[in-house]
Predict the 3D structure of the following.
Amino acid sequence: MKLKSVLFDLDGTLVDSLEDLTDAVNHVRLEFALPLLAPSSVRKMVGKGALNLMHQALPDRTRAEIDHALRQFLDYNEQHIADKSRLYPGVVEVLAELRRRGIRLAIISNKNEALSRLILKALEIDDYFESVSGGDTFPEIKPSPLPLLRVIEQQGLLPQECIMVGDSINDIRAGNLAGIATVGCSWGYGGSDELSSSSFLAESCEDLLRTITGLEQTT
């Protein structure tokens, strides 16, 4: 069956936002008089949504403290959404070529939907996507397959007509559970072990494009 849609994760897949995320985490940690974290530490915490990130960055805190920290984190992130964030090399070329081929594109992120839209706009790639879903769009987040299945349903497509592209185990598990093919992006925040169950592995955006276009020609 012909490939008709590519579902993309955002952070660690299309956008390297680790420095901005680290700054936002450290902004909150300073309020609690905690030492600053290095990007390498924050890298291990991201991917499961902002609330989970706050629990990891601020261990042993009360619910009220976490709720306050989450608001501070989201506010700071909104104000500094793309201070240091950059697209990975080759992302625009991939999106443009897929669009040229008539393949539909969507974002399914565990990042807050409003922040996802903001960073896409700030980096000038928002027009490539027909829909943007975040961690607060649906009742469940990746690795649940629900966000993927909802988006596929909204597109009026079948799972076998779609592919999920991401850098973490959450993306790959969600795709596998949804019954769609997956591409693991090795340049992102997840380690190689997290991508071992993906259908395909891409080492670069050029590799990603070859994988997707090759799949399009054989389906």
